[in-house]
From TrEMBL, chains A, B, C, D:
Its EC number is 3.5.1.2. The keyword Hydrolase applies. Substrate binds at residues 70, 122, 166, 173, 197, 249, 267. Belongs to the glutaminase family. It catalyses: L-glutamine + H2O = L-glutamate + NH4(+). It comes from Brevibacillus gelatini. This is Glutaminase. NCBIfam families: Gln_ase (TIGR03814), PRK12357.1 (NF009021). InterPro entries: Beta-lactam/transpept-like, Glutaminase. The lineage of its organism: Bacteria, Bacillati, Bacillota, Bacilli, Bacillales. It is an enzyme of class 3 (hydrolase). One of its GO terms (molecular function) is glutaminase activity. Pfam families: Glutaminase. Keywords: Acetylation, Hydrolase. GO terms for biological process: glutamate biosynthetic process; L-glutamine catabolic process.
Amino acid sequence: MTKSKWDRKRMDELEQWVAYHRLQASEGKCASYIPALRRADPTHLGICIIEPSGHKITAGEWDVPFTLQSISKVVSFIAACCHHGISYVLDRVDVEPTGDAFNSIIRLEMHKPGKPFNPMINAGAITVSSLLPGDTPKQKLDYLYAIFQKITSSAPVVNEEVFVSEWMTSHRNRALSHYLKDTGYLDCEVEEALEVYLKQCSIEVNTEQIALIGLILALDGYHPLRGEQIFPKQVVRLAKALMLTCGMYDASGKFAAYVGLPAKSGVSGGIMTLVPPILKRESPFPDGCGIGIFGPAIDSCGNSVAGVSLLKQIAHEWDVSIF
Amino acid sequence: MTKSKWDRKRMDELEQWVAYHRLQASEGKCASYIPALRRADPTHLGICIIEPSGHKITAGEWDVPFTLQSISKVVSFIAACCHHGISYVLDRVDVEPTGDAFNSIIRLEMHKPGKPFNPMINAGAITVSSLLPGDTPKQKLDYLYAIFQKITSSAPVVNEEVFVSEWMTSHRNRALSHYLKDTGYLDCEVEEALEVYLKQCSIEVNTEQIALIGLILALDGYHPLRGEQIFPKQVVRLAKALMLTCGMYDASGKFAAYVGLPAKSGVSGGIMTLVPPILKRESPFPDGCGIGIFGPAIDSCGNSVAGVSLLKQIAHEWDVSIF
Amino acid sequence: MTKSKWDRKRMDELEQWVAYHRLQASEGKCASYIPALRRADPTHLGICIIEPSGHKITAGEWDVPFTLQSISKVVSFIAACCHHGISYVLDRVDVEPTGDAFNSIIRLEMHKPGKPFNPMINAGAITVSSLLPGDTPKQKLDYLYAIFQKITSSAPVVNEEVFVSEWMTSHRNRALSHYLKDTGYLDCEVEEALEVYLKQCSIEVNTEQIALIGLILALDGYHPLRGEQIFPKQVVRLAKALMLTCGMYDASGKFAAYVGLPAKSGVSGGIMTLVPPILKRESPFPDGCGIGIFGPAIDSCGNSVAGVSLLKQIAHEWDVSIF
Amino acid sequence: MTKSKWDRKRMDELEQWVAYHRLQASEGKCASYIPALRRADPTHLGICIIEPSGHKITAGEWDVPFTLQSISKVVSFIAACCHHGISYVLDRVDVEPTGDAFNSIIRLEMHKPGKPFNPMINAGAITVSSLLPGDTPKQKLDYLYAIFQKITSSAPVVNEEVFVSEWMTSHRNRALSHYLKDTGYLDCEVEEALEVYLKQCSIEVNTEQIALIGLILALDGYHPLRGEQIFPKQVVRLAKALMLTCGMYDASGKFAAYVGLPAKSGVSGGIMTLVPPILKRESPFPDGCGIGIFGPAIDSCGNSVAGVSLLKQIAHEWDVSIF
């Protein structure tokens, strides 16, 4: 089959699957803790796949904007590791999965007291945000925005309405942050770490942009469109290992079992995932790809219902598990 | 470089690394709860790598016999899934990693009460042993032994001294088993499930045999020496996902981060791991391989100190992470 | 008012209250884990109050037999302390209340590992049973039976049907026992400790007999009918403190707040409690009394619904709280 | 013996005991999280006993000022119950003891989510402070100060240095408060509840003043010097039950077992306790008394080492347990 025939076939398949899995969304519902998330259309489902050539395959509402939410945890972790080195960061946050909900405090108390289990749960991510270089939230965010810009070639935009809502309602995250301050794991003031964390969560993207992040992870930090290694390979591999073991909240184990790709989800319904190059000889993506998904109706763990369902089918039909 | 030159180079490297990492063993110590484990030589370190061609690379004390212990959990999980189908098994045991120690009861109480988190912790493995087909421990074990024989072409031998010692001292496992019986997750009597579980743990192997199991997992269930698909691909992929997220006790996250290969360890000091075919173009094992390691001095999590240390070097130098 | 007029008034009140609180029983249900408990009549409610003179006030089904269940924990704790001294026993079981259910394992793992929180939860009570003097279950039980006989002047009778049922279904208690064996807190074999514990739970009594135990506790170990100090005062005071802080399962705090008397309940619906002498000048029991209650419909914590409800009224109307 | 001879004898005994138990203080150390507590003299030990007649017995450094800290929890609980009624308050905070440390978050997550276990742990006390009547921290505090003034006949003074230090370092309490806000148990803003709570903790007293509070509790809310019932009897009894089951942090069970009196301690080294009237015929305090103790060297649970030690001797020698 020629490349273009392949493409046509895959796009047709994707369109059918998106139409089918969109129906699954009714088993979830949009996050409701702030108005902006509550207003999302629960029937939306979109996907964008980008290959190293820059070639894109899209289906459904792939270009509807949404906020990064927890997907930002991957980028801020990479950013902190780039600046401080891996071992500095891992002295402050562990890399062990946990069966708990993303916002649980229990484990903070039981573990080496206060050290967050991993950078993909809120406690770990807030710790990581506090580690970003800079003396003020603005400096820390500027560092992070510069990294986003390197990836997407445009300055990230914070959805101010979302940020303000998050800021007002973030009692659980404040509880976690004060706990971390008490145990000495926070590198700046509570309100500063929270501002950085909640602003990075409020960056507005669409599936193409997170697919691009995924693609660079697939290529171990190499940006194929810029032709430049933008992150150290070791940092990216570590991030992918964390995505696989902890990226889908307390359904990470199930996602690894049924899909088998490193992924990170957010409560806004986004999922960023990727296929490494030449996993198996017959892969439809021999050079790897990045995948961005948006489906705002989420399940009780916080993952897009239709998005996970669609990814199970993709992994099965196209045989792209890393296992 | 010709194939044989490659081989020579790799064997030389392996010999040097084994000599070096053997020194790490002094940071751990042999499991001491039963005499047979206590008697092991903590300075031992051996490795065997098998490629699909049957070609073997070995170094150190690769042929010293040891008992499978928790490595058997992978085989019994595959066996139960082969017989009952994946969904039957996953109704009785979950697939989520947990940050707890392998023998923790806490999570059994907090989780959907009593359902084990995953088949790689003791509670889950005992549940899986109870699911093996057969009305008696003997029948269940015969089913399991037949699977071992299919892999290694010889009947497995149970180390009776180890089994009897385990049987006498296994209070924690009895506690877990009675708890599982109480919550309804055990498919047979407590003493029957324990007999099966402790006998499968007491099967004697050397690194070549576990490397062979690893190789078959690397090839998604295909036995290259028999030329036969002996396990369904989906079952093997699920087993590998579980190994990656939960296979190294509560250091699974760190192992995924620093080594990045599906692996399962046992308290006797064994580690079974594998490299899938053609992960990256420049892999020294383009067709995949199975790896067996033995180093009886273990750390506080229960993993071979020298073995993990050696695998970090292999993963780094030969660049074989799945991420 | 003359003594006999007082008595008449109190008996009339008691009869009315029993009739009223009997109706509360419909909010609970009989324990159902074994047939003998399941068969109890949930509408039953009986009470017996004994004063130091031997004078008895009774109402309702006060003479229906039931098994001691957890009420036995108080007697075995006193027995173990009489034999070994308080400090020996408290080295093996703590005296802290816990907000957990009586059969929880969680706390065993989190606490100084394995040391039971207190002798009123199952883990602590099984530990205490293992401490009774004697090399066999029979010897340990004989020691305990002798103490019962000293109190009630007749040999205790074990309900064999209940014992056998408990023995067959006691998976949770076996789990606790094996855990305790593993952590070294059990002074004999698991099956021996369980036999002692489950037989003491299966002793058949009626409300008069437990009221008599309560009376002796009220008098700090003095048996008024025998005219003899049968337990050391310090041991009895300790037992009463434990009853107050831990005696009503995880509703102990509420019972202390709303009733304010040392008490111990059992899942068969029994409650043993007591009023110390001259708590307040105007007490209807200036010399103290023991109170036995039976009401087999229990709540989710394991306490007799009608019994607790009746005791709240008694405490309120007769003003007998120790606070 | 005449009354005055009795008094002399008791004062002599007290002086000897204080001299003896002062030596125990070296096993503890002063709270060190803020300068004002760190500066306390760890060898200090003082006691004041007040009888309903107003007669005082004192020994040691009974008049050294210290801050109320957690002892204030009893007064604010009584205040909230006086204003709202018991059931309103107990809808927002439970009355169950817990084996956890006073500042633990774990139980908040495991329990009916977020409802504090009892008003004697920080989470419960902060909730209670938020319930005090008034729309501002000042109004809430004025309500509480008025109650103090009714007891001690002088306006309470807040140690501003202590309050400011607490306010700056109170990360753990802020974590608890934000958690409570998230779960809906806080009746005002986080910063408001904290201001009230930390100011009540910073009220300066000496042992005489807390002995006076204890005396009023001993008399079920009756103020003998004013000749007035200042709190409802039911509220005071409930407060005493809570002090007995939860008043000495996670050593409450041990204190009930070895001392047997309702008591509340604070990290500044204060203990407020009491003897109810005519507990036993031969009591040295037939009309009851209040007891205030100050000994700033505390143990790992947060209780005055010398204070607890002294109270064990008093309870033993004077036979004043409520059991």
